[in-house]
Design a protein that fits this description.
about 350 residues, mainly beta, 4-stranded antiparallel β-sheet, globular
């Protein structure tokens, strides 16, 4: 990179990205991309003060203080780490590693306070991949045993009130309510007579789960932020199935016109949703790798995007996209149904990325 490379615009936040095989770069507002450290799978803290990443993947979790560039080994997996998540206030990382016999990824859950690095085990086996509530007071835990067995639990970040809610599931998809009162859940049970049936549940943080309804012929589900609506594609129609939009209880089911053969595709890396943050737009793709923008309020025919890849949403009004191939990417910041602004030329292939509104200088 040279100083002649166009700079990120002033309203752009902070993007950390991994170039293969294991170099992490940083793109900050008003700057050009710069190499930051060696590692993989970078995740910026919500407050932008720290960067968590892996070294000697998948055994070591490190953090880098983005204000003074110091790096600290936070956690060494025993023997592996397979998931981690920041608390919404950036004060802790929840880290999951293998449990049973310490070689099957079933879910030891650990808490690591940042930046002091104090480590505490919160759960053994009944832990799992962590999903924090928006207020940070609860963690939903998804546990995978021998594939494809799945279970779901909930607990406090201090280890209290740990409850196993569902077990022996084939799959699940959850989304927290905006007010942290609970989360919506779409699940399929193992051994079900109709494996395409998705049960729709409301799981309150206090109280018992309540079944809301079901989807009779549903594959993958993508919840709208806040969990009021969802998108899915019917299994029985195969690769030419259109996208369906429904309410959180399965009512009001409508077909998205012109969406035949599209797949629910979110961020290029990770589990993040293709929904925009305010819940209007959705980034989808067809099986040929062409990207589209779905307006879930108007339900027009999906709008084709003139990009090679759509990475996901930066904020409610902008998504990150790129042009290029295996050897380079020209990153763009795009407005739905509007123009794209050039961000940076990246010499390499982006393997993982993380974005926040700002980060330490």
């Amino acid at each position: 990179m040279t100083r002649d490379t166009p700079r990120a615009p002033a309203d752009f936040g902070c993007l950390a990205f991994q170039l293969e095989p294991d170099t992490i770069w940083l793109l900050h507002r008003g700057d050009v991309p710069r190499p930051l450290t060696q590692g993989s799978l970078p995740v910026l803290s919500p407050d932008g003060g720290f960067l968590a990443f892996f070294r000697n993947f998948p055994t070591e979790v490190w953090i880098r203080d983005l204000r003074d560039s110091t790096e600290t080994l936070l956690y060494a997996g025993r023997p592996l780490v397979y998931d981690m998540a920041w608390s919404p206030d950036g004060s802790m990382l929840a880290i999951t590693n293998g449990a049973y016999a310490k070689h099957v990824p079933t879910g030891d859950l650990w808490r690591v306070d940042v930046p002091e690095g104090a480590v505490r085990q919160l759960a053994e086996e009944d832990g799992g991949s962590p999903h924090f509530s928006p207020d940070g007071r609860w963690i939903a835990l998804v546990r995978t045993y021998w594939s494809p067995r799945v279970s779901l639990a909930i607990m406090r970040p201090d280890g209290a009130e740990h409850r196993l809610l569902f077990d022996d599931l084939l799959s699940q998809c959850l989304e927290w309510a905006s007010d942290s009162s609970g989360f919506a859940l779409a699940l399929t049970r193992m051994g079900a007579s109709a494996p395409s049936v998705r049960e729709l549940w409301w799981v309150p943080t206090l109280g018992e789960p309540l079944q809301l309804g079901q989807l009779v012929d549903a594959g993958d589900v993508q919840w709208q932020p806040g969990a009021q609506r969802l998108l899915y594609a019917p299994l029985s129609q195969g690769e030419q199935a259109p996208l369906h939009l429904a309410n959180h209880d399965g009512s009001g089911d409508v077909v998205v016109p012109g969406s035949q053969g599209m797949i629910l595709r979110g961020l290029y890396i990770g589990e993040a949703s293709g929904w925009s943050l305010e819940g209007r737009w959705f980034l989808a793709a067809d099986r040929s790798g062409h990207y589209y923008l779905v307006d879930t309020d108007r339900l027009d025919v999906p709008w084709p995007l003139d990009v090679d890849i759509a990475y996901g949403w930066l904020d409610a009004g902008h998504y990150l996209a790129g042009y290029g191939g295996e050897s380079y990417v020209a990153l763009q910041c795009c407005v739905p149904h509007g123009p794209c602004e050039f961000l940076a030329h990246i010499a390499g292939r982006i393997a993982a990325l993380s974005y926040v509104n700002d980060c330490g200088r």
